Amino acid sequence: MKLPDVRLSPERVLKEISEIAEFHRIQGSRELVESVEMIKEKLDGLGVENRLLRSTYDGKTWHGTLASPIAWNPVRGELSYGERKLTTEESPLLIMAHSPEGEAKGELLPVFRDEDWEKAEGKIVLVRRNWRDAYKRANEAGARAFIAYREGTGEFYPYIGLFLTRDDLEWARIPALAVPESVAKDMISKSLKGGVEVSVSVQVETPEREDLPMLYATVGEAPYLVFSAHICHPKPGANDNASGSAMLIELARKLSEAYDNSFRFGFAFLWIPEYHGTQAFFEKVKGEFYANVNLDMVAGSPDRSGSTLMLVRTPFSRFSVVSGLLEHFIGLTNRRGKSFSGSELPAMAFKAYLYEMGSDHDIFNFFGVPGTMPITWPDRVYHSSGDTVEKVSLETIAIIGNAVLAAALTLAKEDREKLRRFARGYAMKVLGEVSMKTETEESEKLVMKGLARDSRFIGFELGHDFEGEPWLEWKLRGILNERLIRQNGGDAEEFKKLTEDRKVYAQLHELLMLSELLPKERAFKALEEEYGRADKEKLERLVSVLEGAKIVTLS
Questions:
Q1: What is the pTM of this model?
Q2: DSSP 3-state percent helix, strand, coil across the chain (nearest 5)
Q3: Percent of the chain scored above 70 by pLDDT?
């Protein structure tokens, strides 16, 4: 499968990144709305049909399985100790997202051990992990203020969000701030040498409500190949995720120019706040989507950010050739230099991975739309004030952007027989990877089911469907979380304990999707074939927790 002639402009994407990065795009904030309105103006100028959908941030509404955080805007923050003063003029991340306002002065208490909380009353506590739980404990212990830091951020301010609801404001009273690791270590050193007094001030606005914006654009007619990118995250947030949002603008430009009525797919583009916006979107739009390509952190540089290139495939429960085409075209765009025998060498380290959770492709998969995601990871300035425009890479933008563009155009207009041949080869590749580790009895059935779905949309004949034999129904579909389980009378603490391993958490969601297709033992067998191993005991206990919270019902 060859690369189409159409290319996007990395320079234009970079310019869009720099403009989006000027907004402090915290969920529930006015600047988040303003950043989306700016993108809408750009789409209007391009002549791309679009509409701005709205839900609400009010601390009370539920966006599917997620409780809305409060509407919240930072005004000014300040922290001082000794001769050192930090203010939000340096970075708005000094104020933790959704922090209450307030002023406090007191002795710093670094919390290293559980017993340190006994001394927290009247102190300003400094905490390095488990910030949301620690923030609640600080309030309960009578601390005057809360300061957080994250290891590995160096001189940069970390992004830490509390996502407080209206109910949380009954106990959440003290101001919360975040400081660079270097500042935290200096404060700890002074504290251990005889104590240090800290003064903090946080000014914020908390209106009753704010819009949750969802910008939805379309080119052509359904069924749509839908591209998504979360627009939220703090200033600057260049790679995460001004990059995905900017690339989406350029894709809308290029695909609207290329589209004609012979295409078998239209294209849809969705800018949303992460998870909250995608779940709210599915409450409002019931369009016919073929597949999803989610763009998150698509501009990380190998040198400045330490990034490699990942492709997160669709899960076996939602198998689709769309992952294979992206993988293939990344192989063609990710080239620089030649080997000693003249073979093309990759510009970036690249690998395709089994389904992993972590962005908005998850929600599409949960709602039956195969979702895949190219992403640059790791990123040494992830979720920090160091995620600035000069650290993104034009080469990375070109690699990912042109691969996504090529996959879209190939799906829309390539010869059906060539696509059928490619899909067959990709299915053999995936099943071959499984068969080198274990049996393929269930995974083969799922791959064939996915190919049958691809066939219905693309128009070739491949794969075969099967009638589902579900052992459960996923009633409350979306991101599973402690607050939801507690709200529904379930055992939130048990859920928290069992999902501390993030692999277990991701496999739980895939198990639910598999379990709506297969009987219990076959669903677990499919999960083990997909991932190599699964903790069946933990997962069964988690399903029991979900049943108790009325999130799933067993057949």
A1: 0.97
A2: 40, 20, 40
A3: 100
